[in-house]
Amino acid sequence: LGDTRRSLFDRKAVVSTQSTGAVVGDKLIDLQKQLSGLAEDDFKTVEIKDKIRAEEEKRANYKIENIRRKHNYLPLIMEMLKILSEKGMLLPLTLKAKEKMSAKDAPKKDTSMS
Q1: What is the pLDDT of residues 18-31, one digit of tens each?
Q2: Is the pTM of this model over 0.70?
């Protein structure tokens, strides 16, 4: 019973709004409940399964995005810049990037003058 309760809590996205204190239910659980009452060959069943798949995909994307948001990439970037600098590759790469950007900006300047 403890695992079931925990599993339900993990899946339940309970969000209280600041203004009303209302609780927003979990869309995925609601869709699964709707699906359980329908026949397999029903058109609505296919539609609900698509919504469930979309909701699961959205949650997976949220999870990945939260991991990215929480990770601190600055030490990695600083270490890479340090290594490039030690190998003498940093300056040529920055000059190449500047040339690329100026080449990209040149057509924009020409069209804005016309």
Answers
A1: 333 333 448 878 88
A2: no
